[in-house]
Amino acid sequence: MNQRQSFEEKTLLAWGDDRPDWIVELARFADAEGLTGAGKRVGRPASTLSQTLSNTYRGDVGKIEERVRGALMALTVECPVLGEIGRDRCLDEQGKDFSGTSAMRAQLYRACRFSGCPHSKHTKGTDHG
């Protein structure tokens, strides 16, 4: 009988015994909900999470870590507009384009880009991350 290897087992092989806690949490969630479910929860494609779990992702692993910590591990930050929010939501808000249709959206856009928010990935005064 051929049994599917769990994501948790795969991360042990890929990352070793000293794998980060957020990798373990992501693997456990992927085992429970599948990569597609994990991708929806974390806000990244299943393929990106698969590469992250197998320690082959060539992108910014730190960004994935922040999303996992926010979405799965309850990491929060203090948003100058919304108050306490998950780090994953913080990153989502930073990625949104300007919208003048909502005063709150406009406030968030300015706070993420021009207010010097310590959680922003944007360089102060620019439109890129």
Shape: elongated
Strand adjacency order, main sheet:
1-2
Report the C-alpha radius of gyration, rounded: 17 Å
What is the average of the pLDDT values? Answer: 90
Largest sheet: 2 strands, antiparallel
Number of helices: 6
Q: Estimate the helix proportion, in percent.
A: 55-70%
Low-confidence stretches: 125-129
The fraction of residues assigned to DSSP E strands is 5-15%
Give the total of domains. Answer: 2
> In angstroms, what separates the terminal alpha carbons?
48 Å
Number of strands: 2
Succession of helices and strands: HHHHEEHH
Sheet/helix structural class: mainly alpha
How would you describe the overall organization of this protein?
This protein is mainly alpha-helical and 129 residues long. It is 56% helix and 6% strand. It has helices at 7-15, 21-42, 46-53, 61-72, 87-95, 103-114; strands at 76-79, 83-86. The chain has a two-stranded antiparallel ribbon with strand order 1-2. Strand 1 and strand 2 form a beta hairpin. The model is unreliable at 125-129 (pLDDT under 50).
Layout of SSEs?
Blueprint: H1 7-15, H2 21-42, H3 46-53, H4 61-72, E1 76-79, E2 83-86, H5 87-95, H6 103-114
Antiparallel strand pairs: 1-2
